């Protein structure tokens, strides 16, 4: 089967490093932390925090757990408070929660608990998909697992499922879902090649653009092991293991992938270059940053990037280790086509844990790992948030989700991403008046006259 959305061409990369390097000063602010209560916890302390996922205007969601009478109760947290506990589903028994989840611009959410001992996906307090159910869009097949749920800006759910012909059997292949539609699955054809029909052929690394018009995923072809690992976007192969990067080496592994509404894409991994140079960040047809690059004084990149993010304003972000410790940086395109690189947060930076405006901890580690979750969800504007370890002034350690400001993007007021800033963007702003959303251009939480002034000042 084939599920084309938008045609892309294969990557032919050339190395182009970012031209401007900046260290941005400022504290990170914690929005929720292990060892502290949070609204909706009934005074119970947070015992576990997973990676944050953000709306396009920077409102934060995550899964985690609180300690209730010595037992962990998993939760969904959004925009400052717990909005769902597993115990809210009683008498249905839910346990645990995957690190990957998603939120929409309207506040919908999706996550993956175990439902009565079976793998499941829940959306807005209702079961959406569960192991052993018939597989949507695949007659005669059944779900053997449901994992890595995410959500588009309009609330469309996405997830990866195991598929089996035997109800209750193990996964025979995987399928990537958008709603109830199979977007990519074992046996599909991409760029004239066949996705393997057996095993974990559709990877957990995947992403949909916020409007759902583009998808990107890691997949395995029916081909020799040395050349079967690929990055697929909209049914076209972008990059393939063992093929040239265009920069003197060859693709070797792909760790995570991202796309956006305008058809940009980014992915991370390593090549067959010397070990001290093989980690890379690719953006569209260019290797924009790679291991061994010095991105600021004292910050030379080491190893592979831990996470990658991409937003609709065409900013690309990464979490990467360096000679100065782990860093979070963002690349922002300029009108000349050059990329400016800004380090937004790094090990050793101060953190305001309790929101009183005073620094009371420092970042000691970034907890990004593409093995468990995408780890970096880069919103369109306002701020970016990450899961980190911190140490307080008293020497105590904790896990927290902390947020730092995003640099302004080139065409932030171009709300629909098309043809500059014009009447269509004005209509979006007026339709959001008085509430949150991407038309909140000054990031104060409400679309109002101040945002209108910014938009009119950017009129094409």
Name a few traits of the molecule.
460 residues; 45% strand; six-stranded mixed sheet; mainly beta; 37 strands
Any idea what the shape is? Answer: globular
Strand fraction equals over 45%
Helical fraction equals under 10%
Mean pLDDT: 92
Structural class: mainly beta
Low-confidence stretches: 1-18
- Major sheet characteristics: 6 strands, mixed
Number of continuous helical runs: 2
Question: Would you count the extended β strands for me?
Answer: 37
Radius of gyration: 22 Å
Amino- and carboxy-terminal Cα gap: 43 Å
- How do the strands of the widest beta sheet line up side by side? 2-33-32-31-30-29
Characterization of the model:
- By secondary structure, the chain is mainly beta.
- The chain is 4% helix and 45% strand.
- It has 2 helices and 37 strands.
- The strands form 8 sheets. Strands 2-33-32-31-30-29 form a 6-stranded mixed β-sheet, with no helix packed on it.
- The N terminus is likely disordered.
Question: How is the topology of this model organized?
Answer:
Blueprint: E1 14-15, E2 20-23, E3 28-33, E4 46-49, E5 53-54, E6 60-68, E7 71-78, E8 81-85, E9 94-95, E10 102-103, E11 109-111, E12 114-115, E13 118-123, E14 126-130, E15 142-151, E16 157-164, E17 173-178, E18 181-185, E19 189-190, E20 193-194, E21 202-208, E22 215-220, E23 229-233, E24 236-240, E25 251-259, E26 265-271, E27 279-283, E28 286-290, E29 294-296, E30 299-310, E31 316-322, E32 327-333, E33 339-346, E34 350-352, E35 361-366, E36 383-392, E37 397-405, H1 423-431, H2 449-457
Parallel strand pairs: 1-28, 2-33, 3-34
Antiparallel strand pairs: 3-37, 4-6, 5-6, 6-7, 7-8, 9-12, 10-11, 11-13, 12-13, 13-14, 15-16, 16-17, 17-18, 19-20, 21-22, 22-23, 23-24, 25-26, 26-27, 27-28, 29-30, 30-31, 31-32, 32-33, 34-35, 35-36, 36-37
Helix pairs in contact: 1-2
């Amino acid at each position: 089967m084939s599920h084309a959305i938008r045609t892309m061409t294969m990557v032919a990369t050339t190395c182009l490093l970012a031209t401007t390097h900046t260290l941005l000063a400022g504290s990170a602010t914690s929005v929720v932390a292990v060892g502290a209560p949070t609204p909706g916890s009934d005074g119970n302390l947070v015992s576990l925090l997973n990676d944050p996922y953000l709306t396009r205007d920077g409102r934060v969601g995550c899964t985690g757990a609180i300690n209730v009478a010595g037992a962990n109760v998993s939760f969904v947290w959004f925009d400052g408070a717990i909005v769902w506990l597993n115990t809210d589903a009683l008498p249905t028994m839910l346990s645990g929660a995957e690190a990957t989840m998603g939120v929409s611009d309207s506040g919908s959410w999706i996550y993956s608990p175990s439902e009565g001992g079976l793998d499941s996906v829940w959306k807005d307090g209702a079961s959406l998909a569960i192991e052993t159910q018939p597989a949507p869009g695949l007659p005669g097949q059944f779900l053997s697992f449901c994992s890595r749920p995410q959500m588009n800006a309009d609330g469309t759910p996405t997830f990866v499922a195991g598929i089996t012909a035997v109800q209750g059997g193990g996964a025979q292949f995987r399928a990537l879902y958008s709603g109830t539609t199979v977007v990519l699955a074992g046996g599909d054809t991409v760029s004239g090649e066949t996705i393997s029909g057996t095993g974990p052929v559709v990877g957990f690394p995947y992403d949909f653009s916020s409007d759902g018009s583009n998808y990107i995923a890691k997949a395995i072809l029916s081909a020799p092991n040395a050349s079967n690992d690929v990055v697929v976007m909209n049914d076209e192969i972008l990059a393939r293991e063992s093929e040239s990067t265009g920069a003197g080496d060859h693709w070797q592994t792909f760790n995570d992938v991202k796309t956006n509404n305008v058809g940009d894409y980014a992915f991370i991994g390593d090549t067959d270059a010397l070990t001290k140079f093989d980690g890379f960040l690719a953006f569209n047809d260019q290797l924009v940053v790679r291991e061994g690059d010095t991105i600021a004084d004292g910050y030379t990149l080491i190893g592979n990037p831990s996470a990658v993010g991409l937003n609709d304003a065409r900013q690309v972000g990464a979490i990467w280790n360096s000679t100065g410790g782990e860093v979070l940086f963002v690349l922002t395109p300029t009108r000349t086509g050059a990329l400016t690189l800004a380090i937004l947060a790094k090990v050793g930076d101060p953190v305001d844990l309790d929101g009183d405006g005073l620094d009371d901890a420092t970042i000691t580690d970034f907890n990004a790992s593409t093995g468990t979750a995408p780890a970096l969800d880069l919103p369109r504007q306002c701020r970016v948030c990450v899961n980190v370890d911190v140490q307080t002034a008293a020497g105590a350690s904790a896990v927290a989700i902390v947020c730092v400001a995003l640099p302004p993007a080139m065409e932030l007021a171009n709300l629909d991403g098309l043809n500059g800033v014009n009447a269509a963007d004005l209509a979006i702003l007026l339709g959001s008046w008085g509430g949150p959303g991407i038309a909140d251009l000054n990031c104060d939480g409400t679309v109002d006259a101040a945002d209108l002034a910014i938009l009119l000042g950017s009129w094409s």
